[in-house]
Specification:
Layout: E1 4-8, E2 13-16, E3 19-22, E4 27-31, E5 37-39, H1 52-65, H2 68-88, H3 92-106, H4 110-128
Antiparallel strand pairs: 1-4, 2-3, 2-5
Helix pairs in contact: 1-2, 1-4, 2-3, 3-4
Length: 146
Amino acid sequence: MSNLVLELRAGEMMVVNGAAIRFRSRSRIELASRARFLFGKQIMAPEEATTPARRIYSALQTAYIGSDEEREQARGIASRLIRMFRDATTSAAARLILDEVEQAVTVDDCYRALRLTRRIIRHEDAVLGVADNGGGVRQDCEIAAS
């Protein structure tokens, strides 16, 4: 297994296996073992979960980096939100992606589900005419979880 090296700016957050870490100075870290992690703009604050796709992302985030008890409950919540969104949307493209998200959740591949949900967020923003204000979930970050 190869190690993953990340460079983080001062003030940036990272969550590793459920533990939140805030960096006080610019840091370069190396993850030398398997871990569930998100960092920077991949992390969605609870108050940012304001749309159906963002609520799915928030639940999946907990399913990915939460404690064992939180993870199981959040997977159930995410599955319910995915089904509700899929039933409500008229977009065939969104339904296909949501099917992939649900499949990833079923096999507990929540990192993949998060990546796919970012696509749904972009789609939802386009449909709703939401301009990217630089906040929320980073769309360009596709670091593979080790």
